[in-house]
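pinging the channel bc i need a second pair of eyes. not urgent but kinda urgent?? the chain im working w is below, pasted from the shared doc
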Amino acid sequence: MQQVLIKNANIVNEGTIFNGDVYIEDGVFKEIASQISAKSPDVLIIDAEGKYLLPGVIDDQVHFREPGLTHKATIETESKAAIAGGITSFIEMPNTVPQTTTIEKLEAKFSIAAESSYANYSFMFGGTNDNLEEIMKVDSKNVAGLKLFLGSSTGNMLVDNPEVLEKIFASTDLLISVHCEDEETIRENTKVYKEKYGDDIPIELHPVIRSEEACYLSSSRAVALAKKTGARLHVFHLSTAKELALFDHTIPLQEKKITAEVCIHHLWFSDEDYKEKGTLIKWNPAVKTAADRDALLEGLLMDKLDVIATDHAPHTAEEKDNVYTKAPSGGPLVQHALPAMLELYHQGKIKLEKIVEKMCHNPAILFQVEKRGYIKEGYFADAVLVDLNAPWTVNKDNILYKCGWSPFEGSTFKSRITHTLVNGSVVYENFTVSGIKNGKRLTFDR
């Protein structure tokens, strides 16, 4: 096991930034101090003078497309892109082919990741209208949680039976994560514009079709049901200012029963960008107004929104290059999420400490991930070293996603990830992936 000594780093951890050294051995942080000497001549010494050391990012929502959709992405290709973006742990969603709605299918995905993942991994178990018996078999100590699609599902994963939904909420001790958009509202809106435009609906109407009201109707129902049943609810990818009123910022995260996430694209883009980006920024829920974007950032800073994630969901360029009704929603983000947030830091919109809180600490707290998300002695040594003054431009040559494109293509970021460590091994350094697949199955302290 590699021994690593990181010298002279600006360590960003638990709300503070301090200069010091970090010694890593046997895959864990062994010592953190103002000055540490090398323990042996075999230690790899990294001079971090002027750079910032962050805990590895934990992304609580990705779609890596394996099994069944591997022409778009695989666990291997996307976890490789993730470590290049400083994401050292991910939680993947169940809407693959086949869907992850049985214990057998869940364990099959764990087996794939054990062989191929560069980053640490866990998977959501998928709920349907008719698999409550399987849900009850899931061990909450070994699985990230339960994912329910209350809108915009694939296959048979739309949970639209109110009686079933309430029974699931009342029966499981799993953390329930939900996609909230009201299907009836979306269908009605789609019908109106399809009658007018056919399949070639202007992309600018995407946030009108998948509207604020569609989001609020669904998320408010989910929150009300969680309050009624006492379920532990986590609402994925909020996209509107209106929904912020549903969430509390007056109690610590550890005490919250209802939490919420915001994604990179909803903090970065607005409906003004559809003209340039087209279907490349077609997501569900839709990117909405600049006022929504600004309110989401404010909600993040005031702790109504608890974590930042990517909802990484790649499609091929050919699939995206279609008319509105045929172009799939989703896009690749894991490689560029942390650089994008650091850009918001450079713009004076968020502090480094807050980025670390929302991307590293809080996902660990919220999902009760065991010994990750912090730079602490005894914790697994997942870490990211960042140079805040090393500009680079996203282009085809440095994009690692299997789909080969990014909505950030052509963007110049001021900050560069110089090193990523997963379980104590340097797996990425200055645009080069080492080839070490050191990801481990996440465990949960529940």
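so DSSP finds 13 helices and 19 strands in the chain. and The radius of gyration is 21 Å. — does that match what u expected or am i reading it wrong
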